[in-house]
Amino acid sequence: MKYYNKLQNSQYRRKVHPKKTLGQHFLKDLSVAEKVADSISVVSGLPVLEVGPGTGSLTQFLLKNNRPLKVVEVDSESIQYLKTHFPDLAGQIIEKDFLQLDLESIFSTPFCVIGNYPYNISSQIFFKVLEYRNKIPCCAGMFQKEVAERLAARPGRKAYGIITVLLQAWYNVEYLFTVEPEVFDPPPRVKSAVIRITRNSRTELNCDENLFKMIVKTAFNQRRKTLRNSLKGLLKKENEIFSHPVFDKRPEQLSVEEFIDLTKIFQ
What pLDDT sits at residue 19? Predict the structure, then answer.
């Protein structure tokens, strides 16, 4: 039966052509699709927004969960296919660019976000989720492996960077499993990975959030330098705060909490 499902899935997918400009790589292994769909089961009962459903490999399993489901798709071929093959989605297909959506208007309650995301907008997706962090307690799905490793990185690792700190300030990040290129049509040139982020207990940073973002971005833009050298441009002249021992460190050595403390020092 599993083989038949994979074959059937491959046959109908030919009606929708993956578009390089949209970063489309359609998932053809339904066993992987089912595991991805199950990744948001830790947050039960909440509505679900799927980003970039394509030909519905993931959608079909999300529909079985009996949770309110909406999908957002920008590709006209995929939209027509979904309307034809998934009548249960009638009226629930949002024909827009996810990055341009007002997510407050999607559901009246908090909701989960999931998808086999286009690799060319991976980082932008997470910055969008961060904007609506009080509305989105859980986000999961498929990303380029390198991006997934960056999001889940711990302090001291090479992959640890700007988006790591900004995301982990508000979410717990779990690297769930790695996915090989051959399960996609067309196969990407890199491996993929599924991650899940769930909202942590932090309700505020207890520091100036805009300054926090500025410090994180400025520090990592010159990540090989010590904080004393990379951050000195934020002050107009020499300042005694630079005598603090934290400025002897490089940005990848600081945890989220230490970046918050660093922001307080600047304040």
Answer: 61
